[in-house]
Design brief:
- This protein has 534 residues and is an alpha/beta fold.
- Helix content is 41%, strand content 17%.
- It contains 20 helices and 16 strands.
- Strands 1, 9, 10, 11, 12, 13, 14, 15 and 16 form a nine-stranded mixed β-sheet that branches. A seven-stranded mixed β-sheet has the order 2-3-4-5-6-7-8, with helices on both faces.
- It starts with a strand and ends in a 13-residue tail after the last helix.
- The structure holds coenzyme A.
- The site of coenzyme A has 15 residues, from loops.
Length: 534
Amino acid sequence: MTIFHTEMRHGDSGFERNHASYQKLREAVEAAQQKAVLGGGEKAAAAHAAREKLMPRDRINALLDPGTPFVEVGQLAGDGMYDGAAPSAGIITGIGSVSGRPCMVMANDATVKGGTYYPITIKKQIRAQAIARENGLPSIYLVDSGGAFLPLQEEIFPDEHHFGKIFRNIAEMSSLGLKQIAAVMGSCTAGGAYIPAMCDETVIVNGNGTIFLGGPQLVQAATGEIVDAQTLGGADVHTRLSGVADHFAQNDLHALEIVREIVGRPGPGTISPPPITPRGPLYEAEDLYGLIPDNPKQPIPAREILARLMDGSELNMYRERYGSTLICGTGAIGGYPVGVLINDGVLFSESAQKAANFIELCSQSDIPLVFLHNISGFMVGAEYEQGGIAKDGAKMVNAVSTSRVPKFSVIVGGSYGAGAFAMCGRAFGPRMMAMWPNARTSVMGGEQAATVLALVREEQLARKGQSFSGEDVEVFKKPIRDHYAAHSTALHSASRLWCDAVIDPVDTRQWLTLGLSLAHGSSKEQTRFGVFRM
Ligand code: COA
């Protein structure tokens, strides 16, 4: 067992400079988070409250077990998109404890354009459902939504991962025995009506809750019938006449109490305690602020991260002396066994082969994998191509893709190109994925992309007998570099849901422990690897 001891010295000028610079990154994330939780703003909130409706975050607080945390998924989704019209994508999603059971809670925010679904809203709800499904969590839908955001219908309605997928997920999760519960606390129109209609059990709030395929305006336009919203689809109609809902609630709090009763009925799904006694690391996580270089070109010390992440700062190192640009080993986080892979340099053939073997071993022993990305990519150059680095990288990507143990990814530095794939990037199905505020991801670095494109341009112009040099090259490269710089940040990634959260480095253990505890209680899957190119 290796115990990681720190080489850090408080008071070093580098440490202090890094620390100060990291606070600015944290402040930028906090500012975005504060904006997200405000929802549609004061005016919309006042109109909402005037209808005697609780704000969506207050609904969630009243639903959860008192004093327990709510871990948000995709809080920053929609940040800076649609001219800022969809803070938090107009829906709040996250994991919290209800009647002692971890649940996925999805609450429309009607203060954001009537709770209508933008493309990013759909993506966020589908992501929340995927987390619920993989971890065997009941889903609770607190519905208050005008359905599709009509001006963008072609980006939310017709395709595979559009609106219909939400309803299909409800049916499929119900068929897997995962409870699907809706509380209709406001509007629930058109396609949106299928959320409560398809759930296992549905509560509707008298006065504010409505469920209908076509609202009063549409009915009048279609048939000439003039009818008010409550007569068309209010709580009395649906619990007494139509049977679309099961429980009549007097108000929001009553509805949430009924949901808690439904979740609390006997059945599986409580969190099981960690199998090993949890131990804290030997060093303070706060040190990480001063250890992450303010210059992204400088390496992030992988061992210092492990010293502040692992239980007891310990790792049972796998092939420590081989392929050493990737550290692999088994240990525990919060008392849950894990296999950890963290970059400590570029990926070579040896490191990729070692990783593939390590993933095989963890899969055989049902040990979840934690990937800590800080990777510029695989080594390039004739020597490495001739040595078959593409096939060795493919072995690692293959193992990552097909291993069925729960996987988690945290981008602690950069995550670029095929290195991002091999380290279990978004496309490779990590159960949860986070980025630190300093993290970046893109197909390659901005400077490299600008240089590649400049060389391509130079060759094109040379074929026409024209030259391309000096200032022209710089004028060509700058916008590419700037674009990459702006679009590879953690905030940008979170707004597009390329990750589930931007987490502060000091919260990494807690965040991973939650994911590992949920995975520990969910059913195990058998791994069947494909063909590895030798
Ligand atoms: N698509 C796009 N924008 C919509 C919308 C929709 N389906 N429904 C509402 N909005 C917008 C409104 O234009 C308004 O925008 P603004 O703030 O820029 O003026 C905002 O959302 C709030 O709507 P408003 O009607 O003022 O709020 P409300 O709380 O009184 O009512 C609804 C909210 C959702 C109940 C009501 O707007 C409604 O019934 N909308 C139509 C729903 C519908 O038929 N959807 C069909 C989807 S397939």
